[in-house]
Amino acid sequence: PVRYYSKESLSIGNARIYVLNDTINNYFGSKKSNDRSGMLKLVFGRTSFLFTGDAGGRVEDDYEKRYGSFLKSDVLKVGHNGSRSSTSERFLKFVKPQIAIISAGIANKFGHPNKLIMERLTENQITVLRTDRSGAILLRSDGNVITSINWKEMETSFNF
Description:
This protein is of the alpha/beta class and 160 residues long. The protein contains five helices and nine strands; from the N terminus they run ββαββαβαβαβαββ. The protein has helices at 26-29, 57-67, 89-95, 115-123, 131-134, and strands spanning 8-12, 15-19, 40-44, 47-51, 75-77, 99-102, 127-130, 138-141, 146-149.
């Protein structure tokens, strides 16, 4: 069984996660499965992150109408692996991210991220982090500043 989370918020310590999906609204049931992806906003102090799953451009328009300036976030997880069907110019104007994360496999058969999306992000002066180039992407927020962590150089110790 598939369960879709719908319009709620969760508090975890000093962070708040907003589930932006609205499964009760009629538009939700008429969308393709990618467009029903969970859209989440994480707010911690003065920093915020928007996770868009595989949502495409039409759904981005729906979210703009519903949430407007609430979508503004420091970090945007680019929709649908950086495919041409998501991360519209208009959506970027609402979100206004400083950092964009693209989760895409190395040499994936779809050619993600799409060249148009990369140009769009560059033209908007957004720092782009890509899993196909960096592997895992780790960002840390103290509530004021977001820091990128180089996981390849991290030392980890375990006490048993």
